[in-house]
Amino acid sequence: MKNHRGFTLIELLVVIAIIAILAAILFPVFSKAREKARQTSCMNNIRQIMIAVSMHIQDHDERIFSASNLAWATNLKEYNEPSLYDCPSLTGRGTNTAPEYGFNRFLMGMALGDIPDPTGMVTVADIPTFKADQLDPPYCITQFEDEVNVDGRHNNAANVACLDGHVEAVPFKDGASHYMGLALKGLTVVLNNEVKDVVWTSLSNTVGEYATPGQGSNVKPTVNTGGWGTCGAVGATVIYGDGWFEWAFSNGSSNTMAGLIFGTTCTNYDQITCALYNQSIRSYYCPTPGFTSNQVWATPTDYPSTVCRIERKAGLLIYSVNGDVKYSGTVGYLRPLRPAVAFHKLNTLYLTKARICGAE
Predict the structure, then answer these.
(1) Element (H or E) spanning 181, and its range?
(2) Domains of the chain
(3) Which of 81, 177, 256, 272 sits in a 20 to 30 Å window from 44, CA-based?
(4) What is the C-alpha separation between 214 and 355, in angstroms, rounded?
(5) Is 11 exposed, middle or buried (0-12, 13-18, 19+ CB in 10 A)?
(6) pTM of the entire structure?
(7) Contact at 8 Å (CB) between 309 and 275?
(8) 25: Cβ contacts below 8 Å, ≥ 6 apart
(9) pLDDT block averages, 10 residues each, the chain of length 360
(10) What is d(CA 169, CA 182) in angstroms, rounded to the nearest whole number?
């Protein structure tokens, strides 16, 4: 007679442990696969929404609907179903009166022909839904102090549609701004085609001059100082996304630092986030990892005809002099920046031709 022996306790524990290990390995894979399917369904929703947006624009003399205190999707009730505004990765309750997608507030009310680069202009995208009804306008894509409210809900990626109708997934890296993720794909939220004279504020022992509109402003020190820390100014408008600040130095001697600042006051060179230094016009790059170049790009006699520019474009920070790029590099987290200038010692030199593009 055979003796049928069962599993021992140790054998059972070993089997259970193996199953647990396999489950721990496979469940995240299954979860990502399910989310990928939801992302595809969400992408189809946004594609259908963009068809409705295009139809609405054509029916209204090629002009986008204006901002109001109602959800933007209420403008599209005649063109599609409320269920399209429900993202399968979220609550299951999204409708055209409470959409789980946002519309770019900077495009609202604009004529189609006035919008540059439709292929790179974010129009509809996943947005965080928490308190989205309290945005102005509600359920919009907008920019806060240092971020754009596009939601990486699909395996840390967002579905984004541009004005030309195409839809793509934009991945986001941990610790980097979502603006950077968009910029690296050649996408933007803010219109950046208007060039303005810089209006100066936070004036400390300086004065702003606006003699010829459209030709750039001046900012001059009103006292001679013994060092850094008493003379400076900051621009009144902010570059949230792509854009540039350009200027020239006048004839004269002294040390002057000009560039872009994350802040609202400036009297010292080390307060400026990224700048060009007038001594031989060398680059002085403050953010980590830091960069300094001592190349001679201009001499004092050439200053009035030498246009300096610092630009943010598609995730890069670019320094150029008279259109010649002197340095460019990727910045991990792009904050809102304002023009700034700080003066040092014998302040016979000042800023001229100060202009800005892409600012609000």
Answers:
(1) helix 178-184
(2) 21-184 (no CATH), 195-359 (2.60.120.200)
(3) 177
(4) 8
(5) exposed
(6) 0.65
(7) no
(8) none
(9) 65 80 67 78 96 96 93 96 93 90 93 89 95 92 80 94 96 82 86 86 94 93 84 90 88 83 87 77 51 66 88 79 82 74 83 89
(10) 10
